[in-house]
From TrEMBL:
This is Carbohydrate ABC transporter substrate-binding protein (CUT1 family). It comes from Nonomuraea fuscirosea. It holds the Pfam family SBP_bac_1. SUPFAM superfamilies: Periplasmic binding protein-like II.
Amino acid sequence: MSLSACGGGGDGGGEGGSTTVRVTLANHVWTDNIKKALPEFEKQSGLKVEVTQLGEDQLSDQYNVKLNAGSSDIDVMMYRPLQEGKLFAKNKYLADLSDQVKANANWDFADFQAGPTEATTYEGKPVGVPIITEQEVLYYRKDLLEKAGLDAAPKTLDELKAAAAKIKAADPGVAGFVARTGKSTAVTQFSSFLYSFGGDFVDGGGKSAVASDAAKQAYAFYGGLIKDSGPANVSTDMGWPEAMAIFTQGKAAFYTEANSLYKNATDPAKSKVSDQVGFAPFPAGPAGSKPYNIPSWALGVNASSENTANAWKFIEWATGKDQTLAQQKSGVPGARTSVWANPEGTSTFPKDLADAIAASTKTGVGHDRPLVVKVAESREIVGQPIVDAITGKDAAASADAANTAFQKFLDDEAR
C-alpha cells in the first residue's frame, strides 16, 4: 500500500536527495496515526512522503532483499530494535545519526528515556529513534485482593509469592499467578524477574550469565511461582493470548505482562473482570524493581539512501514532542520523558497504569531478550530453564546446561 501527497517546492535537502521521502512502515496504530498527520508535514517541509506499509513478515522479507542488495529506494525504515536491530547495525544497514540527534536543541534527544535509547544505540552511536515503548507491569484483581484481606498490590516479589499462594489456597479454582510459559515466548516477561534478582542474559564482558547465582534464583522463582500458584495442569506453551485469556476469564489473581496489552484486560467486550483490574509497578526483587523498558519499534535511516537529509527531517518531525504527545493520547506509549510528565500525555491511560509506567521508566532496562543477531535461536536456549522450573525439574542444573549452550552460541556468533 503506497501513499503520496503533493508537496510544495524544496531543493532536495542536500546529499543528492530528491523532494520525495520514501518511508517503509509496519502495520501499527502508530503508522495509521502518522499517515493522517502527513499533510501537515508535507505542507511545512515542502516534501512529498511516499509510504509503503507492510505486515511484520512482509516487512522483514522486504528488508532482507533490499538492504542486502544495498538498495537506495528506502529512505526511512521502521524496525524492531530488539529483534533485528543488532543485525541491521552490524551489517551497516542503519546510518549513524550522531550528528543529526545533536543538531536541533528544540527536538531534544536528551528527552528520550534511557532504556529505549540504549536499545537503539550500537557501539556507542545512535542508529535509530524509539517511537513505541513497552514496560512490564503487574496486572491484578482488586476484588480478589480485598477478599484475601490484602489492602495493596505486592511491592516485592516475596510479597507477590505470598499473596499468590494465599489466594490459590483459599480457592483452588483460581490461580494465584499466571504468566507466559512457552520456552521462547516467556523469555521477554521472565527478563524483568532476572534483572530484579540482579542478573542478565550476558555479563559485562560479553559472556553468558544464565548460570549466575542471580539467574538461577530468578529461574527457580519464576518457574516455582507458576508451578505452585499457577493454573492447575498448566501447559508449557502459553504465549500472551493464552495467559491473558486465563486472567480475563477471572481465573487468576496476578499476571505480569507488557503494558501495551492492557486494553485486553480492561475492555468489557474482551474481559469478564474489566471493572476489577488494577495495575502496579513490577515488584522489587533483591536488586530492586527492574522491569524492561524497551522500544518495540524505532525509526532509522537506510545507510544506502541518497536522501538522508530529508529522511532525517521526516524522523525529526515524526518523533518530535507534538507528534509523540498526539500518538500517546491515542494509546501508543512513547519514549519521551516530557510527554509522560505531561498530564495530557497520560489522560487516556488508567491512572494506576500511568503511575506504574512512570515508575518503570525510571528503573527500566533497555532489553527484554538477549541482544544478539540470531534472537529467535537465543530465546530457545535461555528459555529452556523456565520450562524446566515450571515442570519441577532442577532449575539450577538446567541453567548450567543452558549456560554451556548459550556460551557456544555467543562464541559462534562472534566469529
